[in-house]
Specification:
The chain is an alpha/beta fold. It has 14 helices and 27 strands. It has a nine-stranded mixed sheet with strand order 2-1-10-9-11-12-13-14-15, sandwiched between helices. Strands 16, 17, 19, 20 and 21 form a five-stranded antiparallel sheet that branches. A four-stranded parallel sheet has the order 4-3-5-6, with helices on both faces. A hairpin with a 2-residue loop joins strand 22 and strand 23.
């Protein structure tokens, strides 16, 4: 494996593109050379505040540019950054410190928590003494891990995905190598915190091509985001499906594409209905792309162009550099089109996890990355996610995969989103409960009638709830445990056939 670290990579980029604009955040603009020098200064300040090589350090900063500089500074010290959501509460940070053995947490405002050592990210970090470039610090022995990336934790406590430097570099390079029509050396607009794995991957992916990253404040409206894309001549925008839905809502009445010059509108981190994928490609950007990715192995499949128009019911064509298999409980590959648990091998997959393993969640076994997703893989190489192993519902002995029912519900006129969960039932074992986001015209009678026509009897929900919005994690994933809690509290409408 290559001995190059992320610090080495950014040093090489600074040498190759010293005067090229690397990052923009508000009024702050740094070239590649200035970015590296700022990180060298941050490393010096971190050393003065007792950060040592190989220590794990949490990073919980509001400004993405500060987060990037802090991570690079920690890499220069051979320490291990662990990005945390800056919106996390004190008890959440304390739990992360305990679960992942963090020596410090770098914060720009106190979380009020006790039980861990905090480093205040103050003006000393942002000042830059005129000392000129310094040589890279010498490493003694092997490099420490590059990063601990925390999963979203939608079904429990987060798991820590440990990236070696080579794995993180490979993940960054894969975006430019594999994404259709990737704008090498272009401009990326990033509106999400770097605490999220997808955000970091896109930022590193653009910087490794010599492009420019424009950080947008993480609180934004859909119209504002569209305006920024057009005003800044952005080439690449990463947007989670919830943001794509919001942009479609505000641009519903406008003619033409909302972002006509945007080369790639890259959407991922959660599922999308076929109709929304098509609408995004027709209304938002001619370069709309929907991907399926895992925390452990990176992007596995993508839908764009003709594939999107012809196979919008799938989650994409599997990349030729990624090996995906659907397997049964004994690890045997199932027939094409049959449902199985996804396992992956890729050039950018990780090999180590830390924290508490969860049933049905990410794990590495025998050189395979298991994502906890239930999928179908067609004989022509398209992957379709039908649910999570933890979300599969067994109703009277029949396996029901939520995505299949959710896609049908999204075809009901007036329904924009749907989520299916299982609830205990004394006769069936589990019963089906559907939550739908409607436009005010949708009724339970409409839903029942549509399901009778388009779903087999054992896949029809018996409980419906029409809601204004679905609960989501900070990176856009639907929190089905919260939906189950609502049903457990008795706040749902039952439908008897």
């Amino acid at each position: 494996m290559s001995s190059m670290t992320m610090a080495d990579l950014f040093c090489a980029l600074a040498n190759a593109h010293p005067h090229r604009l690397a990052v923009v955040s508000g009024n702050r603009r740094l070239t590649y050379r200035q970015l590296f020098e700022q990180a060298e200064h941050a490393a010096s300040v971190l050393t003065s505040r007792h950060v040592m090589p190989e220590q794990r350090v949490g990073v919980a900063l509001r400004d993405n540019l500060d987060t990037l500089v802090s991570m690079l500074g920690l890499w220069l010290l051979n320490a291990v950054p662990t990005p945390l959501d800056f919106r996390s509460r004190g008890e959440q940070r304390s739990a992360a410190v305990a679960d992942f053995d963090l020596s410090f947490v770098v914060e720009d405002r106190s979380s009020g928590a006790v039980g861990f050592a905090s480093i205040a990210w103050d003006e000393e970090f942002r000042s830059l003494p005129d000392t000129g470039p310094r040589p890279l610090p010498e490493r003694s022995g092997a490099a420490a891990p590059a990063l601990i990336s925390l999963t979203s934790g939608t079904t429990g406590s987060p798991v820590g995905v440990v990236f070696a430097h080579g794995e993180l570099i490979a993940r960054a390079r894969s975006f430019g190598d594999e994404t259709p029509n990737y704008p090498h050396g272009g401009k990326l607009l990033m509106p999400y915190p770097l605490a999220f794995s997808a955000s970091r991957s896109h930022v590193f992916g653009m910087l490794v091509t010599g492009g420019t990253v424009c950080f947008h404040p993480p609180i934004f409206g859909a119209s504002e985001l569209i305006e920024q894309v057009n005003a800044l001549d952005i080439d690449l925008l990463f947007a989670v499906p919830a943001t794509v839905s919001a942009m479609l809502a505000v641009e519903r009445q406008q003619p033409g594409f909302a972002m006509p010059r945007l080369a790639v509108l890259y959407s991922g981190a959660a599922g999308m209905s076929p109709s929304e994928k098509l609408r995004a490609a027709e209304r938002l950007s001619p370069g709309f792309l929907h991907c399926f990715a895992t925390s452990l192995a990176g992007t596995c499949a993508a839908l764009a162009g003709n594939d999107l128009r012809e196979r919008s019911d799938s989650d994409g064509r599997i990349y030729p550099t990624v090996l995906c298999q659907a397997v049964d409980a004994e690890g045997r590959v199932v027939a094409p089109g049959e449902v199985g648990e996804l396992r992956v091998r890729s050039t950018s997959m990780v090999s180590t996890l830390v924290g508490r393993e969860r049933v049905g969640s990410d794990r590495v076994r025998d050189g395979w990355a298991y994502s906890g997703d239930l999928v179908r893989i067609s004989d022509d190489g398209f992957l379709t996610v039908v649910g999570r192993t933890s979300d599969m519902i067994i109703r009277s002995g029949t396996n029901v995969y939520p995505a299949e029912v959710e896609n049908v519900l999204c075809r009901v006129p007036g329904v924009s989103e749907a989520a299916l969960v299982g609830i205990p039932d004394p006769e069936a074992g589990e019963e089906l409960a559907a939550f739908v986001v409607g436009d005010g015209t949708v009724t339970e009678a409409t839903l029942v009638a549509f399901c009778r026509t388009h779903l087999a009897p054992d896949k029809r929900p018996r409980v419906f709830r029409i809601v204004d919005a679905l609960p989501r994690s900070d990176n856009g994933k639907i929190l089905k445990r919260e939906l189950r809690d609502l049903l457990a509290n008795g706040s749902a409408n039952s439908v008897k056939e």
